[in-house]
Every structure is written in C-alpha cells, then in structure tokens.
Amino acid sequence: MARNKKHLERFQYTQDQAIEKPFNWKQLLRLLKYLRPYTKKLLPIAITAMLVSTLVRMFVPVLIGSVAIDSAIADKDVPFLTWLVIGISLMYLISYAGNNLRIKYVNILGQNVIYDLRRHLFTHVQRLSHRFFDTKSAGSILVRIMNDINSLQELFTNGIINVLMDIVLLTGIVVLLFALSPKLAIAILIVLPLMFYISTKLRRNIRRSWQTVRIEQSKLNSHLNESLQGMRITQAFAQEDENAEYFEGINTSNFNAWKEASRKSAMFRPFVEMSNAIGTVILLAYGAYLILEGDVTVGTFVTFSIYLGMFWEPISRLGQMYNQLLMAMAASERIFEFLDEQPNVKEKEDAIELKSINGHIEFDRVKFAYDTERIAIPDLSLEIKQGETVALVGHTGSGKSTIANLISRFYDPTEGEVRIDGIDLRDAKIDSIRSRISVVLQDTFIFSGDIMENIRFGRPEASDEEVKEAARVVGADEFIDRLPHGYRTEVEERGNILSAGERQLLSFARALLADPSILILDEATSSIDTETEMKIQEALNRLLKNRTAIMIAHRLSTIREADKIFVLENGKVLEHGSHEELMEKEGEYYELVKSQFQMLDAI
Amino acid sequence: MMDIFKKLKQYYWPYKMWLLGSIIALIFVTAITVVYPIVLQITIDEVIRGEKYSWIPYISLIFIALMGMKAIATYIDQYFGDYFGIRSVFSLREALYEKLQRLSFRYYDNAKTGDIMSKLTADVDGFRFFLSFGFSEFVRIILLMTASLGVMFYYSIPLALITMAVMPFLAVVVFRFDRIVHPAFRRIRKSYGNLNTRVQENISGMNTVKSLSREDFEVNRFLDRSGDYRQTYINTSNIWARYFPLMEFIGNVSVVVLLAYGGYLVMNGELQLGELVAFFNLVWLVLGPLMNFGFVINLFSQSKASGERLLSILEEDEDIINDPAVEHAPIRGSVVFEDVTLTYPGEEDKALRNVTLHAPAGTTIGLIGATGSGKTSVTQVLTRFYEPESGSVYVDGKPVKDYDLQHLRRNVGVVLQESFLFSTTIKENIAYGNPLASEEDIINAAKRAQAHDFIMETPEGYDTLLGERGMGLSGGQKQRIAIARAILIDPAVLILDDATSAVDMETEFKIQKALREVMKGRTTFIIAHRISSIKHADEILVLDRGRVVERGGHEDLLVNKGTYRRIYDIQYKDRDKIFKAHRQ
C-alpha cells in the first residue's frame, strides 16, 4: 500500500488561478469603459435591432391566442383572419431583419472590444521590464493575453445585449399576462421564483462540480504534456510502469470528478421539466376553472400556454450570464493586474530625441538598487570612450548585467547620472536610446519563419540583399547555404535544425543588420565545439568594428581582446586596465585567470 | 466509418449496458414529450368546450404523474449516456498513455508534442462527446420527429401536410449552414492558433525583442494577427446572422400557415380548436430537432476523424521489442561495440559508421567531435533507444537485445546536456529513477553531485517544488540535480552527455570534481567539447561524421597530431601564451 501511495504523488501540479471572483462594480465599470468608442453607432444599432425582434416575439402570442382564436376564428371572420395572418407575417419578416442585424452588430461590437482590450494589454506588456518577465512564467503571461481576454468575449458579444433582451422580454410578458388576466397571471407566476432558484442555486452547485472537473482536467493535461516532453528521461530511467500507476491515479480522480458533475448536471433538466409541469398543471386546472367562471376566454388560455413555454429561455440565459460575469470578474482582475503594472522607467514630457549616438558612455557616481534591500551598485563612476571595447568581468551578482541594463535604460539609476555623449539618459526618449543600442544574446531566440525573416528581425525594413550581406560578413552564410532551402529554410524555436553555434552567428547577423552605435554582448556559456568557437570569435571581431562595445564575457579568449577590462565585485570596480596591464599588476584579474587554468589542470 | 468504430470497440463496448439504459429512458422521454400537446388538446376540446369539468383533477394528476416519470427518465437518459462516454474515455486514455510510454525515440523524433497533446485532449473529448451525446441525440431526433408527425397526422392529414411543407426548405438551409459553418469554425480556430503562436513567441523571445528594441515591430505583427482573428470571427458570425434568423423565419412561416389554414379548418368545423392549439406545439417539436440534425450529422464525421487520429497513436508500431527470452542477470558494465552502423529513420546520412569499441567494466571512455559527429548516437544504441542497422552491441558479453529493456536501462544512468526536471519536489526529482529510495540515500546522492548546499538554501529544501509553476533553478543547479538523479540509481554504466557545458567554469569545476568521485567503479561514457573533461579517460574516441577517426589515451592522441591535437592546441594556446608573456 505504501508503495502505491508513493507513485500517486510523484508529480505535483497546482492550480493557482481562481476561476471566478465575487462581483465587483468598480471592475465592471472599468471593463465597460472599453465600450465607449462604440456608444455612438454600433451599440445603438444593436440595441434597436434587439428591441424590434423582442417586441415581435412578445406580441405574436397575444395576436394568435387572444385575437385570432377569440375574435377571428370564434366569429368565423375570414377577412379578419386574413388580415391577421398578413400582419403576423409582416411582423415575422421585421423580426427576421432585426435578428439578422442584432447578431451581426453584436459580434462586430464584441470583437472590436476584445481587439482593443487585447491590444492595450499586449502593448502594455511590451513596455514592462526584464524583471517582470523574470518573475512571471511565459505560460502565465500567455494565459492572460489569450485565454483571460477570450473569456470576456462572450460577455461583450452576446452578454450585454442578451441581458437587456431577456429583461425586456420577461417584463413584457409579465405585464401582458397581467393585462390579460391578473388572477391567472399570479397563479402562473408562482413558477418564476422556482425557475430563478433552479437557474441560480442549482446551477451554481452544478457549476462548482464542473470547476472541479476543470481543475482535474488541467492537472491531467499538465501531466500529459510534461510526460511527453520528459519521455526520453522516463524511458532512460525505465519509469514507464511507475508513471502509468501515477496516471491511473489522476485518470481515476478525473473520471470521478466527471461522474459527479454529470450526475449533478443530469438533475438540472428534470427540475426544469418539473417546474414547467407545475406551471402547466396550474394553467390547466385553474385556467379551466376561470373559463368556467367566465373570467377568461379560450384564446387567453392559449396565449398563457404559449407564454408559459417562453419563460424558461430568458431566465436560464440570465442565470448563465451571471455565471459568465463572475468568471469575467476573475479574468478581468488578472488582466487589470498586468495593466496596472508600471514600467520601470518613465519618459519625461520634454524628453529629447537623440538623432544619432556616437557612443561615449559615462557613469557619474551611479547608485542603483533593485529594491530597498538589495543595493546592486553602491557608487560607481566609469568612462567608456567612443569605439572602445570593454569587458566586464566578475562573479554572478557582481553588477555586470546591471551596468548593461542601465546603459540601455531598462532602469534609471537611484542616484547619479548615466550619460551617453554627455546627455543624461533621463532627458532622452527611451526609444531613441534603445534603437541605437543592441544587445547581442548568444542564446538568441529563433522565431518560427525562415532564416531570412529571422535575421531581418534586426531591422525589419532591410532588403534581402542587405540580410545576405550581413550574414556573409559574420560568416553565417556558410551554414545557411548548406541548409536544404538556404535562406528560405523554415526554422522554429524547438526545432533542432540549428546548433547552438549557428544560433549565435545568426544573432550576430541580426545585430549587424541593426547597425547600432553601442553594442552590448552577453556571452552565454553554452555547448559549442571548438571549431565553431573559433568562427564565432572571428565574426565577433568584425561585428565590434567601429562600435562602442560592452561585453559581459566568460571566455578568456573573448575577454583578452578587449581594450579595457573592468573587474567587478559587489557593484564596485576592483581594478581596470588592459589584459597586459592587469596581468602585470598580478592583482585580482591575474588571480582569476590563474585559477581558471588551475581548474582545468586539476580536473 | 464503421471500421474506425469497430477498431475502437474494446474501449466502449464493455459499457454498452449504460448506453442501452440511456436509450430505453430516452424512448420514455420522447413518448411523454408528445403527451403535452395532447393533454392541451383534451383540456380545450373535452374539458372546456365539451364542459366535462369533472375531468380536471384526473387530467392534472395524470399529467403530473407523467411529468414525474419523464423527469426520472430524463435523468437516467442523460446520466447513463454521460457515464457511458466518460467510462469509455477513461479506458481509452489509459490505453493511450500506456502506448505512449512504450513508443520509441523514433516516434518522438518526428512527432510534435503539440500534435500529440491535441489528440489526447481535443480528439479524446470529441470522441467522448459523440459517445455521450451524439449517438443518443441522433436517436432522440428521429424518435421525436416521428412521434410528433404521427400525432399531427392523426389529428389532421391535410393540415399536417401543409404545415410540414416547409420541412424540405428548412432541411436545405440547415444542411447548407452546416456545410459552411464548420470550415468557418476551423478558420477561427486556426486564426486563434496563429495569434496564440505569435504571442507565445513574443513572450518566450522577449529578451531578444528587448535587446534589439523591436517592441513596435512586435506590436504591429501582433496587431496583424489580432486583426485577422477579429475579421475571421466577424465573417463567421455573419454566417450565423444570415442563417439563424432564416431558420427561425421558416419555422414562423409554418406557424403562420398553421394559423391561416388551421383557423379556416376550425371555422368550417373540420378541426377542433384544441387540435389547432396542439399543432402550434407540435410544429416546434418537429422543426426544432430538424434544425439540430445537421449538427448531429456533423458530430458523426468529426468523431470519425477524431477516432482516426486516436488510432494513429494506438496502432503505431513499437519498434523496440522486448524479447520474451529476457536476461535479468546483474550487469557489471563491460561494453563492446562491434562494427555498429546506425541510420536514423528518415535520414539519409549514417549517424554511426562501423564503430567498434571495448570498454571493460569500470573504465572511462571519452567521446569528442563536432556537433553531429555521432557522439550521442553511441550512447543511444547502447541503451537501445535505437536499433543499429548492422553490427552488435554487447553488455557483459551478451547482446543488448537479450536483456529485459527496463532492466538494461535501469543499469545505465544518463545525464543529458538539457536536464529535464519534472513538476514535483526536488526530492522526487532526484528519486525519479528509484522512487523507493530512502531519504538518506537521496541526500547522499545530492551531496555527491554537489547539489546539497544549494538545495538547503531553497525555501523548502528538498520539498521545494520545481517545474512550470515551481521554482526556477539555474542551468548549473538543474544539471547537478540531474546528476544526483543518475547517481541514485547506482548504475553500472554512466553516460554524461555534455553534462557540464551549460555552466560557468567554477561550477563545472565543482561538478567535475563530484563526477570523478561518482565514476569510480562504473563504466563511464563522457561526451564533451572541452579537452579538460575527457583527458583522463582510459580511451578517447574522436568522431567525425559517424566514424572513429582517432582513438587512444590523451598522451597518445597528442603525439598523433591529428584532430584531437588541433582541438587541444586551440583550447590550450591561451594558457601558454598568457603565462609565457607574463613570465618574460
């Protein structure tokens, strides 16, 4: 028994997102603001169309029951019946047109709001800092932009109009019933609260059990997805049987959740049927009695019987809408949480546009802290001259990446100034700074598309020729020409068409195409064979020509080539100078180099 | 069509009693549904107009009783039907999962996770929906339409004929709608998928986007897709806008005709008023299901397509066969390759060409060579992830084919360059290959892999959750957990496939030191780019395009002045230059 238990808990998938949240007016109003651009035209058209078809639906039963049966048919008045038939036909035609317009415009409206909302969120997220992306998993951001916004789709397309329609229809019918026969109306309307009860309480109970299903299902899917991705490890460790045991566990609890939810759901329709049946029996018994008393005509009786069949639909839809609203609350809360996230750097109103950048960088008594507890740079001054290549050396957490982030203004210093060409970066437009600075990541991301498009990402307006030229200069053309379709070869992130070294060359070509004045190189430690490493070194030399370059380097071969090396520790410069100078000094840098080789020998 | 359902029979047929129960209940439900208009007719014609008011209590009682029965039958119909579906899917899922566990690397090389996932989710669900709902809905539609038409014809043949004259028109509209709406739905799904891919790539590649400050470009690309999704959706909703009101209108035409002709018949005394009222009800009992008919027909073809895709997994060849004559003897770890040649399925070039090697138990073999030279292939043949095209692999003198597959693999520990960890605690991750290991052994393995110290610094220590929603670890930390995982199974053969490349020099130093300890007494294959990682190996194989081009100890290979020497020179030239320059 103990053994089984072990395997049933070997993986843990947590569901951390609330599916629904209590109703919140402020949030709803904030959501409804997205309707504003459409209040002039789309919304009125949709509402008018809805009203027209609803009114037709509301009045036809009266015409059929109370008018046609009681007057025309009872009096054997053929011309009147003819007129009625023509009239009702015309009304149906109008209702047809109204329905057509309603469905059409309601969807245009909803899709436009969804589009706006998604654009707002996506554009906002693009401006958020690295820190934001470091603390959130890619999956959770994707879920907000895609699924959470989509779950508002129903609210904005049919939801709002349907609520109006159902309220109009229900009140209209109730008013008409009272107008026809107050006594019978009161008797019949007993079923309304019953129906509302079923539509809200019973349904909530059912919905809860479906939520359990959804959670179980997402657990199951998470495991399936992970087990496929980790299949090689599973087979290498011969864990197939143990995993099958685990799967049987979640499969069973998934099955049980489904069974429970199905069982509850299956109660729903019988209850609805029964409430309808109660209404019908009241109508049959009490209606017949009232006819006997002479209070009510046969036609009114028929009208009532038609209306009785029309109650359920709007009530059911209103109940569903309420559910929808609670889910929208949860989704919109998550969306607004992202929208309220502030970018780290704010642009000044009178920020100046940097036309061109020469690349002279100064740090003047810069202090920087990510938060109050963690001071990354206590007090740093340094100068990088135009065209210089500088290497930043130090352990993890020594402040190398922080310096790079301050130069591209992903953050502003807490105190002091960072200047490029003598201008305080805080006075310049963010885009004008960043467009002249490129960061070359060696573990670059490959977008799905062909090689040509991937290189062109560096400068989207570049011509095919320019792309090829860039690839040629960094020596990437060699491997690209060997690919089955050359520059038109389709690649994708997970595909193993490109090796780690080839990706790096590709990212160099991208950077070259972007043609920045300042280049920041973040060297990754990755698996590259020695020959490829040589090629990359060569390409790098070409890329760095005539640019100010800051390298965050690990490989000695890269560091040595720099004009100036800064050795950093805890955000302070321990020493700086050229490789030769620093080796001569036999200081920290010398020790660092020595220990690296000692390690190699020691292994 | 039937063929696919026949092949999948074993997953749903054992639960056929549920389906049968559901259908029997359904027959009751349908019969009682048609009772309502009849009761209405009797009330109007007999009770009210015939003034038989004493019938009221009986009619009411009978009606309530019937509706009570209907409620119960409805419950049984739905629950049994659902149960039939979910029970079948339970066994189907289990079969799929087990099959997927057994499929070889060859299958996973060519299959995309996303595709398999969509089969396991969308197609399984499509199949369930058909079992639970589609089939009985089909039966319901037929039964309900037949019963209602029967009552209509019983009341008045001419009126039934005239009001039902709209049926062909409605049928045409319904089928046409169904034909165009499904491709339209597919277009929406596809457009949504494209948008999803776009956003996903943007987020995953955010570092790259920011590094080249391409945010605006990305926003525009996103808006293209988002606009396309909006347009596709609106186009599709225009189809609804055209067809739904039309279907309703056709139904309404039938109501108007009913009023006109039925009214005329009542005036002439050829039809009772109650019968006319019943007709108003019956019309929708026929036309309503007809509007759904297209949908149900479509369910058939969709579930057929889903079934086909599920069979594509269930019927996939298992090409690595576990021979019945299996060997369970303890493995000591001597490995011999004789003239092994391997070609990956679907590829032209050979991954290994006539590779021969002898690794006595406890020795270390180093493998070096450019990307794609076949280093990893050597280890994949040894663990039988792929079968060689020719030649043989022996472990402890017996062909690997003679071993029980799981037994063989349990004795080979693998550490890959990209260490995949599962969504569970650190402890469970380390114990992945040996779930019954004691806590002590787990900690011991972590210590030997130099992982214990950083594990103790995580918030929950060994109980810290990893994976998608869990804590993020650095590449070096993941790697050390993967090493601990391999150590814990105490393998006779250890494979380190580029295990230390994604870490910085200091971490590598630590890991290497740990590994030296671990490798003692095991046959070890080390794959690496750095000479420093393999120079202590008993034998080093230099591979080039699947061929062994050089072999021998470190010193021998240096003397050889071949590929190995060249790599060595590049990697060590720095040291000599740097220190020489300094000493002068």
TrEMBL record, chain A:
Ranges of residues in domain ABC transmembrane type-1: 45-327
Positions of transmembrane segments: 42-60, 80-98, 155-178, 184-200, 271-292, 298-315
Key word Secreted present: no
Location in or out of the cell: Cell membrane
Protein's UniProt keywords contain Coiled coil: no
GO molecular function, one term: ATP binding
Signal peptide positions (record): none
Entry-linked Pfam families: ABC_membrane (PF00664), ABC_tran (PF00005)
Keywords tagged on the record: ATP-binding, Membrane, Nucleotide-binding, Transmembrane, Transmembrane helix
ABC transporter domain residues: 361-595
Membrane topology label: Multi-pass membrane protein
Protein name: Multidrug ABC transporter ATP-binding protein
Source organism per UniProt: Salimicrobium humidisoli
